[in-house]
Specification:
The protein has 165 residues and is of the alpha+beta class. Helix content is 38%, strand content 24%.
Length: 165
């Protein structure tokens, strides 16, 4: 992996502040969150892509979660961290301008994926305009459910609602 960068104990960026309804709540949530962004590769990411885009591996960790998937960091004391990883396909514009995704991009993506409301595949197709006869839509639905479950390991629905739009 190349070009790794991360933000620890994040302060809200200007863009995040401007697009967030509850700045105080989000600021408190992010005090215990670290996001690491590593360049993964350039390629086709979404099923309908016709252009290559930068794809990143995102690692999000949170100190002090009460998840059953927690571990103790011996090196830094008894702080408990939960973490998830996922791939993030950046915008074509960011790829062309050689701009890396920022806090706002990642938080918006996690909110969108974490708050998907579909209870089943048919609802998913109805909400997003896919055919429930599509194999591609079924694969996408499974990926979205996995991503949602990962995000909900770190954040509650109420916390995700505080993320920027």
């Amino acid at each position: 992996m190349r070009n790794g960068f991360g933000v620890k104990n994040m302060e809200l960026s200007k863009t995040t502040r401007q697009n967030c309804e509850n700045v105080k709540l989000l600021g408190n949530i992010l005090k215990k969150v670290t996001i690491r962004i590593d360049f993964y590769r350039k390629g086709i990411y979404f099923a309908g892509d016709t252009q290559k885009r930068n794809i990143y591996k995102i690692t999000v960790s949170r100190q002090g979660t009460n998840s059953p998937f927690k571990w103790t960091n011996e090196r830094f004391g008894s702080d408990i961290y939960e973490y998830i990883t996922f791939k993030f396909g950046d915008s074509i514009a960011n790829t062309e301008n050689n701009t890396k995704p920022d806090q706002y991009d990642i938080l918006c993506a996690m909110k969108s994926d974490g708050l998907i409301q579909a209870q089943n595949f048919n609802e998913f197709c109805d909400e997003l305009g896919y055919s429930n006869d599509s194999i591609k839509a079924k694969k996408l639905y499974k990926k979205v459910c996995i991503q949602r479950d990962k995000i909900l390991k770190l954040f509650t629905i109420e916390e995700l609602e505080a993320f920027p739009d």
